[in-house]
Design brief:
It is found in: Mitochondrion inner membrane. Its main location: mitochondrion. By secondary structure, the chain is an all-alpha fold. The protein has one helix and no strands. The longest helix is centred in the middle third of the chain and has 42 residues, at about 30-70.
Length: about 80
């Protein structure tokens, strides 16, 4: 009844290879190459990403504090109300 998922298209002149999932090694060189690679990528991009995020956070908190201060009532304006 129809074609299977792997046989949806006929492609000529292209050789494809596949490996059984039981023969694959998912965590090959995980500790010897994987962790140093993660550290290299993290340290390479940290100084590109962190300064804008810190600056954005500081501007956001400053804006919120200024807004909160502007929304307060001045007690001196109401000192003689009686």
């Amino acid at each position: 009844m129809g074609r299977h998922f792997g046989d949806l298209a006929k492609i000529r002149h292209i050789v494809t290879y596949s490996l059984s999932p039981f023969e694959q090694r998912a965590f090959t060189n995980f500790f010897s190459k994987g962790i140093p690679n993660v550290w290299r990528r993290f340290s390479g991009s940290f100084f590109k990403v962190a300064p804008p995020l810190v600056l954005t956070y500081l501007i956001y908190t400053w804006g919120n504090s200024v807004h909160e201060q502007s929304m307060r009532k001045n007690p001196a304006d109401y000192a003689n109300d009686e």
